[in-house]
Amino acid sequence: MTLARVFDEVSADLRDVLDRALEGRELSVADGLRLARVTGRELHALLAVADTVRRQQVGDEVGYVINRNVNFTNVCVKACRFCAFSRTKRSGEAYFLDPEEIVRRAREARDLGATEVCVQAGLAPGIDASFYVELVRSIKRAVPELHVHAFSPEEIRYGAEQSGISPRDFLSALRDAGLGSLPGTSAEILDDGLRRRLSPGRITTAEWVHVVTSAHELGLPTTSTMMYGHLETDEQRIRHLDLLRTIQKQTGGFTEFVPLSFVHREAPAHVKHHLPGLRPGPTGNEVARLYAVARLMLGATVRNIQVSWVKEGVRMAQWLLSAGANDLGGTLINESISTAAGSVHGQFQPPAELRRLVREAGRIPVQRDTRYRRVRVFASEPEPDEDSPLDRVVDAEAAFGSYAALTRDPRFRYRLPLAST
Q1: Cα gap 178→175, rounded to integer Å
Q2: Largest Cα–Cα distance of the chain, in whole Å?
């Protein structure tokens, strides 16, 4: 069915919004709200336009990065109501990986073909800015070729406060130690009223913006994210996208946008607090709609829209490549945070599986680095024999361990005071 035929079946006001998107014109918050509420044939029209705009903006290549997650501790001084990963310092499941183990995991990732190590963790008492800086320095000494993508804006704020310095000075020290980029997590929905309900005491919107813009000014790119499907409204989602777009126009520092579906199964907000109005994550239509709206609102400035397969599963991730997305994220190897919340989609995807999903979607797989530079384009089949050793991994938990096993491992039991500080 042609776009013209699709347009014949939608209302005139929606047709006007979609026409402006196809012409490359910027959509307003009101336009975004109109798109955020489409269903049925209008949803099909939105998805078709998002796919067309995606092709215009970034072409048919779909990227992925070979990376490893290292969530070095689950101990956290905060008690965010959506987080099922964190533990108190006295919990029997509290763990802390020492720097030597973190470096070992980084080396192993490099040997398996990874170009990135992603380091994030809880806010453990007893660590400060010097701990984070020395950790980055240790990784870069051991594996200088590995890109260190580490520390959320929440961690940056925490480390700076613990050491009595500004977030900008902390970021500058991390950059000088070898930090390459930051994950733009801890954003959830950038609306302070909602944040107080979902995660009281968490970083504020202004603080989040200050950290990411300071990072961009220092030459440290960040991702941008949204966690949705819990308590937020359509308007809060769209204003979140608009704020990200505004930041990107000012700094150009976002490498991608990653929508993150709320996983409710083990979240304290669901199993403990029973927050009124809490939803069990977004529906399938909501997910597809948000990706499409993100492409139309952000794609001219934040060109890469990334699918989180660990949130959506590989089948939905593949489908979202036709809803405006152009990236499948990373191999992850040791994904822990979504898994702890009850995600059932695993902690690792082999590179060959990501390429298969891309090819079956009629697109071109590309291994990229953290900054979205091509490492290798897989333009033909059959693939050459020299694939990643990760493609031979049959059981990821047996090969790399799991979050559940880590919480029971006596070698990494959290103890006070931390010997490394």
Answers
A1: 5
A2: 68
In this structure, the strands spanning 67-71 and 61-65 are unpaired
Write down the domain spans for the chain.
Answer: 3-53, 61-412
Look at residues 58, 76, 16, 85 and name the one whose alpha carbon lies nearest to residue 324.
58
Q: Which of the 8 DSSP states describes residue 345?
A: S
The mean pLDDT values, 10 residues at a time, for the chain of 421 residues are: 69 95 97 97 96 98 96 87 74 91 96 95 93 98 98 97 98 98 95 92 95 98 96 97 98 98 66 75 96 98 96 94 97 64 61 94 97 92 66 80 85 68 38
Run of H or E including 197: helix 192-198
Instruction: Give residue 392's Cα distance to chain centre.
Output: 26
Q: What integer best gives the mean pLDDT of the chain?
A: 90
The CATH label, of 3.90.950.20, 3.90.190.20, 3.40.50.2300, 3.20.20.70, for the domain at 61-412 is: 3.20.20.70
Kindly report the pTM of this predicted structure. Answer: 0.93
Helix, strand, coil abundance in the chain, percent, nearest 5: 45, 15, 40
Identify the bridge partners of residue 413 per DSSP, sorted by sequence position.
95
Q: Residues 181, 243, 235, 293: is their CA dihedral positive or negative?
A: negative
Residues pairing with 374 in the sheet: 368
Tokens of residue 352, six digits? 């060959």
Measured between alpha carbons, how far is 74 from 403 in angstroms, rounded to an integer?
10
DSSP 152: -
Residue-wise pLDDT for 364-378, tens only, equals: 999 999 999 999 999
